[in-house]
TrEMBL record:
GO molecular function, one term: translation elongation factor activity
Positions of the UniProt region annotated as Involved in Mg(2+) ion dislocation from EF-Tu: 81-84
Keywords, alphabetical: Cytoplasm, Elongation factor, Protein biosynthesis
Domain Translation elongation factor EFTs/EF1B dimerisation: 72-289
InterPro entries: EF-Ts_dimer_sf (IPR036402), Transl_elong_EFTs/EF1B (IPR001816), Transl_elong_EFTs/EF1B_dimer (IPR014039), Transl_elong_Ts_CS (IPR018101), UBA-like_sf (IPR009060)
Entry annotated with the keyword Protein biosynthesis: yes
UniProt protein name: Elongation factor Ts
PANTHER family: ELONGATION FACTOR TS (PTHR11741), ELONGATION FACTOR TS, MITOCHONDRIAL (PTHR11741:SF0)
């Protein structure tokens, strides 16, 4: 497969690795982007998923929570430019989409777009979207949503960076006292900042563990080519444990108190309020994650229009 400059550029943006390293990785893996990212990670030339998930689109993430904190929704709506993301009309539209999502029966975006718009049931969600595109003058996209309903707890949200990152988190508790609300907000901020993938190690699939183990092992082999395999296997045990702590919320270091893990922090909260407090689930959206943004060179664009 021919390796193009755009492929090299994409891999470089995902990993931060050098141009020649990216070209070598793509060539070795016949242009497969995912395998090339793994190859660079194994060589120690990429910073794992932190760079692979770089934000590349504009828009907003917003959450909507019911008055009793028993229902919540979070949505991501994309725009072409950051300028539009700061537009009041666009921001109000995203808020309306979040309110639509908290009341939706849809389980995917296609069904969501076909629903009646709650603020004007003579129109569908997709019709309102088209109207907004016409008024605002940019292509807009309702990309995704998630909805929670809590039976034995409550839901809290946190929005960071004026809508760049959003989180909803559900706690299993006997009450939503002020102390519990504060804890939930702290957890939502933790999730926004550190981006865990799981609540605990119990949720981590064996496939994920084995894949990470192989990548870490290859890294160790490349760094220590003279060490025997049994020593390499011992070396990666600690690395794998560290990796799992980074992706599991309860094992993460609490950002507000480095002496605590999130698990120990929740133990403290539980002791304070007199009953057990558990994290049931969470969702974290970051605007544009996984979307490749088309970069425009303004000077080139002007030159083209002038026929130069």
């Amino acid at each position: 497969m021919a390796i193009t400059a755009s492929m090299v550029k994409e891999l470089r943006e995902k990993t931060g690795a050098g141009m020649m390293d990216c070209k070598k990785a793509l060539t070795k893996n016949d242009g497969d982007m995912e395998k090339s990212v793994e190859f660079l990670r194994e060589k120690g030339l990429a910073a794992a998923a932190k760079k692979a998930d770089r934000v590349a689109a504009e828009g907003l993430v917003k959450a909507y929570i019911s008055d009793d904190a028993k229902k919540a929704a979070i949505v991501e709506v994309n725009s072409e430019t950051d300028f539009v993301a700061k537009n009041e009309d666009f921001q109000n539209f995203v808020t309306d989409v979040a309110e639509q999502a908290i009341n939706t029966n849809a389980t995917d975006i296609d069904a969501f777009l076909e629903e009646k718009w709650l603020r004007d049931e003579s129109k569908l969600v997709k019709d309102i979207l088209v109207e907004k595109i016409s008024v605002i003058g940019e292509n807009l996209s309702i990309r995704r949503f998630e909805k929670f309903e809590s039976d034995n707890g409550f839901i809290e949200s946190y929005i960071h960076g004026e809508g760049r990152i959003g989180v909803i988190v559900e706690l299993e508790t006997e009450t939503n006292s002020d102390a519990i609300k504060e804890a939930a907000r702290n957890l939502a901020m933790q999730i926004a900042a550190i981006a865990p993938k799981y609540i605990s190690k119990d949720e981590v699939s064996q496939d994920y563990i084995e894949k990470e183990r192989e990548i870490l092992k290859q890294q160790a082999v490349n760094e220590n080519p003279d060490k025997p395999e049994n020593i390499i296997d011992k070396m990666i045990i600690g690395r794998l444990q560290k990796q799992l702590k980074e992706v599991c919320l309860l094992d993460q270091q609490y950002v507000k108190d480095g002496d605590l893990t999130i698990s120990k922090y929740l133990d403290q909260v539980s002791k304070e309020v007199g009953f057990k407090v558990n994290v049931k689930r969470f969702v974290r959206f970051e605007t544009g994650e996984g979307i490749e943004k088309k970069e425009e060179n303004f000077a080139d664009e002007v030159a083209k229009q002038l026929g130069q």
